[in-house]
Design a protein that fits this description.
406 residues, mainly alpha, 0% strand
Length: 406
């Protein structure tokens, strides 16, 4: 069965094993990334701080992720790449256990900073190494990688809430998550790391500024648009009195379900259509949906459909930004690290900006739709800039030896 699947994917036995390790590790990442959200009320109660103060844990993690993103590219190019992933997974697992046991809020801030730093190693590293391994075949697999993240993200809230209610503590759910994350480090034992796409001299060359800034902006916009709808639509529905809390939770779930399922469908669409074509269709869907929503009187059915369509549109923006980058930025490791810095800056700043505008009388809850419309338009402008930007490289044709490894 596995051999049949491998043949249909066009992968060698070695590449199939490597890609499988990245996918399983990305499920682990999906379990760690959203774990703080459902645990936040319990952590605030245990450490004796208000929920408002406890939300600073998100900032500590985002700051760690941003600094970790800076470091990942250099680490992948100077150390054994799969060793970098192993260290990241083990530290992430240890962070989960420490998070469940630490009674002091200041120590929690430190733990979340460290967790964010090494989460970046695993997140950025998996994306870079998948490009190194698959080269010109990478685009559908990169979209699939971000799809598989959703499995971990969907089960984590259930694990944390249910086990905490049963045991009265966070140790059981976080220990279960930590064991799964740590077990993934074993996948890389005696698994050869892929070689960088370029020679050392090319890796050390300065990155072209224009495409670098464009891709940093694309990840900033893709990440923040997803965050703004996913993070604020629940509050939007309550503030506008369009639904109850239970229904608003269902609308939020619809958004993430649409994102996850669309990434699976997109992995197959990308076998027939170019990344640019898929991105243009996605942006057209978002811009058209939000424009119609703003023109109509708000109602629950209209908002629910708009959230679904925006989830479908936004699903491909982040992974396809990463898939396009190697054509313009030759040093893939350093370039991807800096692109993730752009996403991290968005995670640090935009919740504060949107939250403040959300409370104003002049803008109010509609800010989530204004920002989504502006963000999608700016992303489309970034694509236009790329069309007139010379490509730094095409994926080089593999040598006979390399061809056999794929």
């Amino acid at each position: 069965m596995l051999n049949s699947l491998r043949a249909r994917l066009g992968l060698s036995a070695r590449s199939f094993r490597v890609v499988s390790a990245y996918y399983l590790s990305y499920i682990a990442l999906g379990m760690v990334s959203p774990a703080l959200g459902p645990a936040l009320p319990f952590l605030a109660e245990r450490t004796g701080v208000s929920l408002d103060v406890a939300s600073g844990l998100f900032s500590a993690k985002a700051l760690g992720f941003m600094l970790g993103s800076f470091a990942t590219g250099r680490a992948l190019e100077r150390l054994r790449p799969h060793g970098v992933i192993q260290v990241a997974l083990l530290v992430m697992a240890l962070s989960m256990l420490t998070l469940a046991l630490t009674p002091k809020f200041t120590l929690l801030l430190l733990v979340l900073f460290v967790a964010g730093f090494f989460t970046a190693w695993q997140d950025v590293g998996s994306n870079v190494l998948l490009v190194w391994q698959l080269k010109e075949k990478v685009t559908p697999f990169l979209t699939g990688l971000h799809f598989i993240w959703g499995f971990g993200a969907m089960v984590t809230p259930l694990i944390i809430v249910q086990l905490q209610l049963r045991t009265g503590a966070l140790l059981a759910p976080f220990a279960l998550i930590a064991m799964f994350v740590a077990a993934n480090a074993l996948l890389y034992v005696r698994l050869p790391s892929p070689a960088p796409l370029q020679a050392t001299k090319v890796q050390a060359a300065p990155l072209p500024l224009r495409p670098l800034l464009v891709f940093m902006a694309m990840l900033f916009l893709a990440g923040t648009m997803e965050m703004v709808i996913g993070g604020f639509v629940f509050t939007y529905l309550l503030r506008t009195e369009l639904s109850t809390a239970q229904v608003a939770g269902g609308v939020t779930s619809t958004f993430y379900t649409a994102v996850t399922c669309t990434r699976l469908v997109a992995a197959f669409l990308l076998l027939r259509f170019s990344s640019q074509t898929v991105l243009q269709a996605a942006l057209g869907l978002i811009i058209g949906t939000v424009t119609i929503l703003l023109a109509l009187s708000p109602s629950l059915p209209v908002v629910w459909i708009a959230v679904l369509l925006c989830g479908i549109g936004e699903a491909t923006l982040f992974p396809l930004s990463l898939a396009l980058a190697p054509q313009y930025l030759t040093a893939v490791g350093r370039a991807t690290s800096l692109m993730f810095v752009g996403a991290s800056v968005g995670a640090l700043t935009m919740p504060l900006v949107i939250g403040r505008l959300f409370e104003t009388a002049t803008v109010g809850p509609q800010v989530i739709w204004y920002y989504t419309l502006i963000g999608a338009t700016l992303y489309a402008f970034c694509l236009l800039i790329l069309r007139i930007t010379p490509k730094g490289m095409e994926f080089s044709a593999p040598t006979p030896q390399a061809a056999n490894s794929n």
